[in-house]
Design a protein that fits this description.
Layout: H1 7-10, E1 24-26, H2 31-36, E2 40-47, E3 52-56, H3 58-63, H4 73-83, E4 92-93, E5 109-110, H5 111-116, H6 120-130, H7 132-142, H8 172-183, H9 191-201, E6 202-205, E7 210-219, E8 225-235, E9 238-248, H10 259-269
Amino acid sequence: MRFLAFASLLSSLVFSSCTVNNNVKEDKSLARFFEENKVSGCFAIMNNATGQFTTYNLNRYRDSSYLPASTFKIINSLIGLQTGVISGDSMIIKWDGVTREISDWNKDLTMYEAFRVSALPYYQEVARRIGKDTMTFWLDSLKYGLQSANDTFRLRSAVDSFWIDNSVKITPDEQLGIVKRLYFNQLPFYKSYQETVKRAMLRESNTKYRMGYKTGMGYTEAGHSLGWVVGWIEENNHPYFFVLNLESADRNVEMSTFRMKMLTDILDQLGFRKGEK
C-alpha cells in the first residue's frame, strides 16, 4: 500500500490548529447574521499575510468540537487518492440503484461530481474500500479530531459512518487549519492529489476573487441541526481562510437553504468579493 511509504513522514506531521493568541479581532457585529437566521455558531477568517483572525464567538471556534459531516470528504478524498482506492477525479463508482431524496446522487458519479454534489453513498463506498485499518492509520497519524498529540485515534463506529454519527468530532479551529495546509500543499499527501481536491473545492472564480469551499450538514448528539462551510477566498493572489459553523435546536431547519447566503453576507460586510483585498 502506498501509505506505508509515508509512515516515517507522518510520525512527525499532525494536524494542528491555527493557534489564536493576540492576533484576534472579535467582531460582535457579525452576531446579527446568526440572529437573523435563528442559529448559534461561530465564524473565523484568517488573513494569511498577517496571521490576523477576525472571529465571532471565539470560545466556540477554539474550544468546541462537532461531527465533521461532509467536510470529511476533503480528507476521505485525499486518503482515497493516496492509497489508490480512488484512481483519479474521473473515477466512476456506479450507482447502487437505491433511489435517494437527493436526485443528483441517483446515478453513476465520478469523484469530482460526487464531491461537488456531496454524494454520501459514493464516499461511503470509498471508505469501505479504504478499510478500517488503513483509515485508522491515516487519521491517527494526522491526529484528526484529537485534541492532544498523545491521544490515539480509534474508530468507534463503522468505517463508512464515523464522520456523520458523532463518534469523531473536530473543532472549527482545526477545520480552518486543515484548509490552510491543503491550500499550500502542506498535508502529507502527494501534491498532485492535494491539487485534485482543491479543484473540486473551487466553486467561484472571476476577475475579482476565487473561492473554494466544502459544506457539511448533520445532527449533534442532542439532535440539533449542524452546518459547516470551510474554505478559502483569494483576492489579488492573497488567500484568506475561513470557517462557518452553525447550530439550531430545530432539527428540521434546512441549513442548506441559508448557510452559503450567510457566508457571503458575512464576507461582503468584511469587504470581500470586490477584488480590493
